[in-house]
Amino acid sequence: MLETVKGSLIVSCQALPDEPLHSSFIMSKMALAAKEGGAAGIRANTKEDILKIKEEVDLPVVGIVKRDYEGSPIYITATYQEIDELIESKCEMIAMDATSLARPDGITVKQLVDYAKEKAPHVELMADIATLADAKQAEKLGFDCISTTLHGYTEETATKKLYDNDFAFLKEVLNAVSIPVIAEGNVQTPEMLKRCIELGAYSAVVGGSITRPKDITSRFVEQL
Length: 224
Fold this sequence. Notes:
By secondary structure, this protein is an alpha/beta fold. It has a single domain (2-222), classed as TIM Barrel, CATH 3.20.20. Helices cover 43% and strands 16% of the residues. It has helices spanning 2-5, 24-37, 47-56, 80-89, 109-119, 132-141, 164-176, 190-199, 208-211, 213-222; strands spanning 9-13, 41-45, 61-64, 93-97, 124-128, 145-147, 181-184, 203-206. Helix 2 crosses helix 3. The chain starts with a helix and ends with a helix.
């Protein structure tokens, strides 16, 4: 998958149960629209959505499963169960929360990485990180690539945005690791996407600004 998406756009096609477009069928059509628009890959949530997307398009998929667990803030591919579901989905890459936050049942990121590599060595692994320390640790653990997905979405980084100070955090990560770094999280415009690639991002994931019409509508309405 990494070879396919280099220098290109990955579109995140996701809708949670409380969102108007929640439907595996609708997400498959979102993926088709993304492909026709020129996307090189798709990021998708749940085994069901990924299977439906794969019926519609031949683009490689970054798979995640979002699931809440009591007592843990981690919700992106948090346990072995989610890894199993994603392997069954035949996605080309699995993304997981690679922060230092406490995981359900005391599972460590290393245990999940080792488990995934043993069960599906052909599937690449993406580390969703929030801090520079997360990025450095992810490289040591053997992830194939790093994504800035959670920068701005954890308690420690809640006041920050990926695009702050001309993508300062992205630059720090790029300088700190040698594996591919994918820009994700608040890449809101085509100009931002272009800038991320100019700075050295291997690829970029854009979601809400393309596939969440409710949020896009609200941004327009807020200006009124």
